[in-house]
Amino acid sequence: MQQFLALYLKLFFLLTPFFVLSTFISLTADSAPEVRTRLAWRIGLGAAGVTLVIFLIGEYIMRVFGITVDAFRAGSGVLLLLSAISLVFGKTDGHKPLTPQTLYDMAIVPLAVPITAGPATLGTLMVMGTTTHGLLPKLLTAAAIAAACASIALMLHLSDRLVAIVGHSNISILSKITGLILSAMALQMIVIGVRNLWLS
């Protein structure tokens, strides 16, 4: 259980929940509650599907293209670091009101991928897939991925309540804290990948 919780927390932050939440709130500001609910769960399901596929068969994709685990780890670390930097310094994009159908069409792309599960997240999961051996560890990690995506969906479903409780400014602060955590994870991936490539 302790290993599952550690994996869950790592994956939850890897999905940049507060950045996703702030984006979701901006896009659905003028939408009806039922539209936000359906969109939230579509995003969660889409992100879960993509991340699980990458985690489970990413190793075979790497073999096809002849990419080593350490090269992919270092490259993913760079992408994750860039994502972390954008979270810390922030982005403000104006959005026009969108129709429900337009929002539903955006559920998978870009809301699930790449906003929720971006290139850095997918790269990290691919590396995890290649370094996780044995049926039980893979099932445990897959369950943690599913739980993290479900938590994102639930958070988006409760976005109105969260904003009322936390406030817009505090959500922005939490997004920056997420960026700091991701930057530490990214630097660790880069250092390990470069060190292993140098020694090989």
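Second entry:
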Amino acid sequence: MLPFGGGNETSYAKFEPFLDPAIQMINGEAPGKGRRIKEPLLKNLYLIADEYYKQFKPQIKEPYAIFGHSMGAYLAHLITQHIREDKLPLPKHLFLTSKIAPSRNYNKKRSLMTNDEFVAHLKELKGMPEAVLNNEELLQIFLPVIRSDFDAIDTYKYIPQPPYPVDMTVICGTRENVPDDQLTDWKKETSGNFRFERWEGDHFWIFDHIAELCGMINQTLSKY
């Protein structure tokens, strides 16, 4: 499970009760977050992916899949490339939500936003509680972490590679201002089966549909 910008190893805790008991949910932690809060933050997406890969690599033994929301989708993509390079067993499926295809990424220059502009942007995404966004003390803690991740996303440079033979599901919220073609271009990254869907909601629609989303994951993985 790979987190969204500002997320950590507890981000998907609410998913676990809805996953099939046969599915073990594995989370990692990046520097500067959660239990690693005292370590320097990373602002390069490739380095962040390397950190997660180091944590997951020893566990790549049993059949597995990868889930990534928003920034986590790019991390899933980069880690899958790492796995192929190391000739380890590839994931059975990639579940990628609410992120345009890596080949379509561009610098939104969010690093140039003032804190007020950035907080307004976070409110638009509807991914953080208003109680946090309206609390100056909490913002001083969370804003540097979130801004660091957003900088990493915005400055990520796509490097084309041959598609990997992994089935892929891409889902985006119906109220996200993202054209379908920017999402379906994920097809360029896989030679496996590709599925694209829109589910009702904003950028963090996944937390409004936890039971349905986990049910879809359960059903999909039961076929392998």
